[in-house]
Amino acid sequence: MEINELTKRKLKLFISLLGNLVIAVIISIVIYFILVLFFENTLSELVARLNYDLYAWIVENRELVVYVYIGIVLAVIIYRFISKYVNSINEVYNSLDSILKEDNETIKLPSEVNEFSEKINDIKYEYILTKKNEKEAQQKKNDLIMYMAHDLKTPLTSIIGYLTLLSDEKDISKKSQEKYIKIALDKALRVEELTNQFFDITRYNLHDMPINKKQINISYLLEQLVDECYPMLEKNNLKCNLKVPEKVMYMGDGDKLARAFDNLLKNAINYSYENTTIEIELNENDKGIIIKFRNKGDKIPEYKLSKIFEKFYRGDDSRKSTTGGAGLGLAITKEIIELHGGNIMVKNEDEFIEFNIVLPLF
Q1: What is the spatial distance between Cα 214 and Cα 253, in angstroms, rounded to a whole number?
Q2: What are 39-95's pLDDT values in tens digits?
Q3: How far is CA 5 from the centre of its chain?
């Protein structure tokens, strides 16, 4: 709570107390005069009958009796007022234990401290949300470890198996040797790729990626990426249709953007149907630079589509280890685009999956 807000609350409390005291004094004086004007004779006779000495003392000390009467009234009012707010403070204190309860029950407090009630409920719901996010993050990390352990074990088992064959079989043919060596090398490269993904995860968790901006030609950048991915396209019986202007200049980090676009292109390759075409389109207008990646593949359910940019999320649990990753590629892509002040969206219409990137012009 800010200092000025706390001061306002103290002032409000003081004014409330002062107001109650003023009202109490006025009411007590009114009651006194009513008693004096309308019931003085009756009260005097009653007191005189009960105790004449007391009656004589009251008559002699009339002003003192008035002061004592008002003092008693004020003391009662002050006591009631303080008790009321002490009880309210106790309610606030006792409600603090309810913050740690992970339920949806709203904490209710007396009307005098209603503003505290709102803040305490805000803290409680924020706490519940934080705990929920922590549990989900822990579960995703556990899933990631399971995925990666399985993905690492598979190629390592193959490497050990083929190297054991090469070591044990003395009369193995040259052709078989070359075959086993090639398989072992491919699996070793796969292990290297998975290891690099582990390093990516570490860097992604420890700090934000630095952005070093300079003038780059995005058209040329996309052309290079498509050329580099040509062997993967051929292997998967895919084509890539690139529609870009000759030159589109942009102030950005070329390495980071290349990585973001590369993630999207490889994602499209891994998820596309065979004998289909991946479309990449680049346009420039008043909104900025718009880049679209579109491919044809299995329809993504809506609940998975909404989580597709989450860290460690892998949309296809059944994807083979030869193509599966750590579930970090699209999360990193989103991070890179947002660090450039842009945004990325995904939509899935029928069997077509489309990623749309907008990079603002500065």
Answers
A1: 6
A2: 566 666 676 677 766 667 766 777 777 777 777 777 777 777 777 666 666 666 666
A3: 28
| Domain membership flag for residue 113 | no
Alpha-carbon distance of 261 to 192, in angstroms, equals 22
Alpha carbon of residue 311 to chain centroid? 12
Residue 218 and residue 174 share a domain: no
DSSP code, position 172? -
* Torsion sign, CA atoms 189, 191, 194, 196: negative
At CA 126, angle to CA 125 and CA 132, rounded to 5?
90
Interaxial angle between packed helices 114-168 and 174-206, expressed in degrees from 0 to 180 and rounded to the nearest 10? 160
Residue 177 domain boundaries: 140-206
Q: How far is CA 162 from CA 123, 157, 170, 321, 343, in A?
A: 58, 9, 13, 19, 46
pLDDT in tens, 312-325: 555 554 444 444 44
Containing 145, the helix (H) or strand (E) segment is helix 114-168
Helix (H, G, I), strand (E, B) or coil at 299: coil
Residue with tokens 């995860």: 201
Q: What is the pLDDT of residues 162-181, one digit of tens each?
A: 888 888 877 788 888 888 88
Q: Let me know: does 238 contact 265? Beta carbons within 8 Å.
A: no
List beta partners, residue 243. Answer: 281
Residues 6+ apart with CB under 8 A from 132: none
CATH classification at residue 187? 1.10.287.130
CA–CA distance from 224 to each of 221, 240, 262 (Å)?
5, 13, 10
Distance CA 325, CA 333 (A): 14
Report pLDDT for 318: 44
